Input
Amino acid sequence: MNKSRTSRVNHSGKLKSERASFRTIECRFDCLVHAVEILRSKGFAVSSPEQFKAKHIHALVEHWENDDLSAATLQNYLSFLRVAMRAIGKGHLVPKSAQLVSDPTKVVVSKTALEDKSWSAKNIKLEELLPKIAAEDHFVANIVELAGAFGLRLTEATQQKLTESSTQGGQLYVIDGTKGRRPRLVPIETDKQREVIERLKQQVKRKDGTLGNPRRNLQQNRDRVYRVLRKLGINKEGLGVTAHGLRHQYANDTFEMLTGVQSPVRGGLLIPTKSQLEARRELSERLGHSRTSITTAYTGSVQHLARVRHGRVIEIVENLATMDEFILKAFGEMDLEYVELVGRCASGEAALSDPIELAFHPIPKMEQINEFVQDARNHHPAGVLVHFSQVLAMSQPGYKSVRIYQHEDVLS
Output
């Protein structure tokens, strides 16, 4: 199989030719080899994609669907297959992914963030972890600090040259390690960033001006970064964050700096449209993306979050139906006028597995609440949290509530 140039049509409709990254080419090649192996195991006499027909494509899709792959993985496989078929003049065999699968929702991939993946969202501070990383490998600590300060990918931070020419004019010139070698300028605008640049410049040991260990090549230095972070538990399984979370933190912090309002995933919902669009253009350039829409993968989208959270509220309310008899019984015993869904449940931020957050009106006796909360565990695995809604409303900005039971429900 030929690992060659790929083409695509850009937004203006012109054919745009670009060289895929080595990693992408390698993944495509591996996927096609695997596809041939799958078909042969199913009794098809094929030895290369050139022999593929419609029946082979459908057999592959059925196999991948039965493997219960994630939407992103299934979409990638179909994309790799589509590129290969187009290259040999058989693109018609692989139409849009939704037309190939039994359930179109299986290939719906949402790239809009629904939560803040920054380290700060987990109350983790890079400056507190840097000494631990440096104790393991100070070269790795320098690379991670640079990545955090400027929102670089780890590959970029590993290959970033800290020379006079790459940091002049109050900007960091980034090109090595970028996707498609797309160059960009990242402003050096805070005192902290200037201090980081000047200090790290003094610690460069490699002739090429990068921060890695001079005894290792660039690939070995990059692999070393991931090994050290994994060893220290700086991953999803350990602290619940990834190195890429530093890029998310830079993106969300920068969005707030540019708009004066927190990003959608941090609760910012009243963002002027013009201000938001300008901020996304600026942010996409800083992060090295050609499309402004990709910034929502870091900051979230007001509209998308609103839709998703509204759907979650409906799910939570529908799930409460299993507790109807229990809640209505307590309703009568406590002589309540109405019950509200509140907190993260009312805003749509809670999962179905989280405790149900309720507020009673009027507020019953404390012993009645304690008895209700204790008994609720027999009806919902995570239990119920009862809030004093007046206190919650005063302490929680953007307090939301959804009335779910009222006096008429008991009477009926």
Remarks:
- The beta strands are 6-9, 15-18, 171-174, 184-187, 338-342, 356-361, 384-387, 401-406.
- The mean pLDDT is 82.
- Residues 343 and 357 are 6 Å apart (CA to CA).
- The chain has three domains: 6-107, 111-300, 309-411.
